[in-house]
Amino acid sequence: MKSEESLGQERRVQDEAESRESLGRDDEKHDGKRYWEFSQSRTAIIIAIGIIFVLDLLNIILTALPGEIPDGAYLSSPFALAFAVIFDIFLCINILRGKNWARIWMLVRIVVGMVIFGGITLIQGNIGEVTITIGLSLTLILLLTGTSTRLRIIGSIVLAVLAILGGLILTMTTDSMLELPTVPETPTPDYFSTYTSEGFFSISYPPDWNPEMSILEEAEQEMKQWAKSEGLESQAAEAQLVFSAWKTTQDEFPPSVLVQVQPRSIWSLDAIVEADRQIGMEQLEQYVERSMVRTTIGGREAIILVLQYEMSEYGVPMSTSAIAYIGGDEFVWVVVCMCDTQDSDVYLDTFDDIVRSLRVEY
Asked: Which of 14, 55, 224, 285 could form a disulfide bond with 310, CB atoms 3.0-4.6 angstroms apart?
């Protein structure tokens, strides 16, 4: 018969065994929980790194494009861009290796970038780009910090998608925030002749100007050839010339007017004008804007831009153009009057009357 001391010792051994078994079960649960959290964190990190690499790749592509997207790349210097990409790769590799210092430096880079580039684009009035910058920055912060639960990861992805879609919509539909003077609509002079395309549009011009519809196809081909040579095929692909007229004169470069029509899509009139201005500044020699006003033409919203430029490569001397952008229901109408700059003081008032005479029936 066992003594009380022996029984007590057996009881202690049994209790210790049960305690070890219980601790073992707790450790297994704890390890499983850590493994589950690590799996989720690694998924979040991989998603974040994927977003960073895609943004770096887009930055490289936009910087390499020949002016088609003038403000697309923040880092226009190849050295600055190369340094940023190499730095991102270095940090991302170390983040995957579990280095907390790399994650901290990446978060610093994200926050500083959001503040600096978000502030720059806000000052420039590009609300769409501000939205994308802030949205993607917050997405990366959510993915790289905290306990990355499945809900948090899904929420981060949704935030990124909404930021990109919202930014694109704002870029295409929001006014460019240009402070333009507004001038009232003016009547067309009574002595002007009028060309009418039944059920489409009409435009008026001085009686000593002659419509030249036969050259439209050739002029359109030349316009698209120039656009192709400058890497701007997408901008010219759907544009169509529908009217041209020239003043009867012996001058080598007589005053003229062209009417172009293009699908409006969801772009605001301000966004279309701003895009054309950026192209002009980059592609035309000695580009100078003389004036720009907001008005109405035939009861429709319009912007009239007067500028001068030169295209010596194509035999076009220093020229002055008055360009009216008129917003239609389905199309944007662009009326371009042009003359030699040395004659601009003679013709600018006439150009203003011509571009304001357009009436859209479709």
From this structure: 285
d(CA 253, CA 244): 14
Angle at 358 between CA 270 and CA 261, to 5 degrees: 60
CATH for 193-360 is 3.40.1000.10
Amino acid letter at 75? L
pLDDT 10s digits, 153-201: 888 889 989 988 888 777 666 555 556 778 888 899 999 999 998 878 9
> What pLDDT is stored for residue 75 in this prediction?
46
Angle formed by the axes of helices 4-64 and 150-173, to 10°?
Answer: 20
Q: What 3-state class would DSSP assign to 350?
A: helix
pLDDT at position 337, please? 95
Q: What DSSP state is assigned to residue 298?
A: T
Tell me the domain boundaries of the chain.
4-173, 193-360
Helix (H, G, I), strand (E, B) or coil at 334: strand
Residue 38: pLDDT band by 50, 70, 90 thresholds? very low
Cα torsion angle, 311, 261, 271, 298, sign: positive
The tokens for 57 are: 């790749």
Helix H, strand E, coil C: the string for 202-256 is EEEECCCEEECHHHHHHHHHHHHHHHHHCCCHHHHCCCEEEEEEEECCCCCCCCE
pTM of the complete model: 0.55
